[in-house]
Amino acid sequence: MILGGTSEAHTLARTVAQAGIDAIYSYAGRVAALAEQPVEVRVGGFGGVDGLRAYLRDNAITHVVDATHPFAQQMSRNATEACAHSDVPLIAFSRAPWRAQTGDAWRAVPDIDTAVRALEGPALHVFLAIGRQNLSSFAQQPQHHYLLRLVDAPTTPLPLPDTSVVIARGPFSFESDRTLLADKRIDVVVSKNSGGTAAHAKLEAARALGIPVIMIARPKMPERRETHDVDEVMRWLHGETERGV
Ligand code: NAP
Fold it and tell me: Is 3's C-beta closer than 6 angstroms to any atom of ligand 1?
């Protein structure tokens, strides 16, 4: 089973399908239009660790690849615990974090709350590039204008008083992000350190325009085997299979 919702999970689904491995792709179901997959798909939470253990048992899952987003901490914790108790091997397939380059003006913060506190002060134009979750935390700094980029149009009122919303799904280009940041007169970007290429353009655009970035570090994940390399995931799958596990 591939725990997905990321481009890494999509890549792995294609790779296992080509290899003829029987797989099921699991979506949380947070966005309206789910990308099609070349393997069987299921949607929705499992119901915590116990629900996931029951799912693994009932569906005779032999391997779990946690390819969820680096900020999907709860799912990763649940998966690690459920697999350990169910004797099902697990590997995490993730993207390497972004690292600041020459010309970047990053302020690294450990979590969302610290990012919120870093925005204390006079009103700014903030590109709050963190997706839909955690927006309410920034209501503590209501003085700013927040530019949001979301996959789906919001169906409930946003928790921030002064926003503009762009509906778009990555990957994004340097040119379009530079235009967006300049047109919206962005003073500061707030980003999760998601890694990968699809959402990297905003950081290149911020560098080119001399705009500072508040970079939120990844949450701590449980101890587990982890790789950024799809070939290693495939070797892990084949190795375990050959040993008959
Ligand atoms: P989360 O806080 O770690 O998970 C909350 C709950 O959502 C989990 O306990 C689980 O419910 C369910 N869930 C999460 N991922 C699931 C999956 N792949 N399949 C089935 N159930 C899942 O996760 P999140 O941060 O809300 O992220 C939700 C999904 O969006 C993830 O699949 C992730 O890959 C994707 N995503 C997240 C971000 C982000 O910034 N967090 C960005 C891009 C994509 P139960 O306890 O009921 O099993």
Answer: yes
